[in-house]
Amino acid sequence: REQRNKMPTYPGLERYHILDKMGDGAFSNVYRAFDTLTQEKVAIKVVRKHELNHSQSENDKKFTAVLARARNVLKRSNILKEVQIMRQLKHPSIVSLLSFSESPDYYYLVLELMEGGELFHQIVKLTYFSEQLSRHVIVQVAEGIRYLHEEKGVVHRDIKPENLLFEPIPFIPSKNPPIPGPNDEHKEDEGEFIPGLGGGGIGKIKIADFGLSKIVWDEQTMTPCGTVGYTAPEIVKDERYSKSVDMWALGCVLYTMLCGFPPFYDESINDLTDKVVKGQYTFLSPWWDDISASSKDLISNLLAVDPEKRYTINQFFDHPWVKDEPLLPKSKL
Ligand code: ADP
Ligand code: MG
Asked: Where's the Protein kinase domain (predicted)?
């Protein structure tokens, strides 16, 4: 009750009851809210149009005002681009934008609510995932990427566990199990319990945050954006390569789920950059000892430094680790 009273009110959002905060960034706050019109819960991403700066000297104020104006221009065009791209998307692995509106000070993105929150927190909670749970997650994310790359000509460019959100598997109440009668058939085999795939675990997973996404080709003509004849080779190349950034990120996410830590890490940003550029990562013992050679092969192909050699989304789906293993039955979700 106390928290509800502390929730801010925003002009233009009277239709919604803001329940609690789900995430916040430099420019945006994301709230869980109740839509009184549809009687459904939603997520609302509130983006400040202008950054407010309190408690600073007059000189600082003048300086930051100039900076802020420049940054606001950037942020504004970004948010409108994010909305423009999200409006074109409709896929079970993509968080959908339900509506967009604005007030003098804010932009509002009303989004499909992902109750489970970030994949990131689920990795922290479970330490690492089984191969089966990792496959369950990565295949759904990859289906979203295939839709973006192959059908929409969109690259996401910010695939990471913080931007992958899930719906939890519902808890099945088992307080009063039915007492078997004399005429009952044998009980249905429910299979083994897989940690992370019981109640509260990851059901559906979807890609969120299109703040850095980009359209690389025209949806109607299926050609690169802009006048092709005058486009410089490095731009054409750039657009071809840009899809491969999502595939690299997909490899990083898969690696992280399987062992619980990212493939590239260093306290120093310079050393980290160096490692990424050289593709310096290892399947560290003992953490990787019992993980399949097939998953390591797939990761190596996603973490190829040369974007020409890196797996495309279709090669991902053709890999035995993805293709030859059974997925979890949809009925369990
Ligand atoms: P930013 O550009 O600030 O990273 P995001 O769109 O990634 O904005 O949202 C920030 C955070 O808010 C996410 O990492 C997630 O924790 C939460 N969030 C965003 N959208 C939703 C949603 N539809 N459902 C649940 N949580 C969400
Ligand atoms: Mg984000």
From this structure: 16-322
